[in-house]
Sequence to fold (184 residues):
Amino acid sequence: MVSSETHHLLTPPVFTDEKPHLAIVVSPYYKDISDNLVAGAQTAITASGATYEIVEVPGALEIPTAVRIAGQSNRFDGFVALGCIIRGETTHYETVCNDSSRALQLLGLEGNCIGNGILTVENNTQAEVRADKYGQNKGGRAAEAALHLIALTHRFLKKTKGIGFKPASEHIFMAGNSKDTTTE
Fold:
C-alpha cells in the first residue's frame, strides 16, 4: 500500500434492539491467516452487538456454496466470507479468485448480506499484513461490510411506514366494544 493513500471507513453499525446473527464462513486452508481473519471478524461482530457462528469449508470455492446452504436455513441475517488465495505457478489462482468472488457477488445481488474477506494475494507476507487484526484487519472489515448491509436491509426492507393493516395482536379491544382503541 502506498503510504500517501487515505481511506475513509464508515463507522460500524451498532445494533441495540434486533441483534443480527451472522455466519462466518471460512476456509482454513492457510490456517494461520484464516485464524487472524476470523479473530478480526469476531471482534467486529461482537462490538456491533451481533452474534455469530463459524462454518468451515475446505477451500475458497466452497465458501459461496456454504453461504447459499446456510442462507436457506433462515438462521442468519448475514455472512462473512473469509479465506486466502495465494498466487501459485498455474492459472488455478485466477479461477479460484474470479469464481469465488463472482459467486459471492451473485448471492449478494439475490439479497444476501455478505462481507467478502477472501484475500487474493501474491505471497504469504501480503496475506499476513492484510489478515492481522491490528494491521489491515480485512476480517474485521468484511464483518463490518456485512453488518452495514444488514443495517441497510433493516432500514429499507423491514420497517413499515404505518400504512395498511395492523396485525390482530396490535389491536386493543375493550370488552363489549368492537371499536379499535389503538392510537396511531
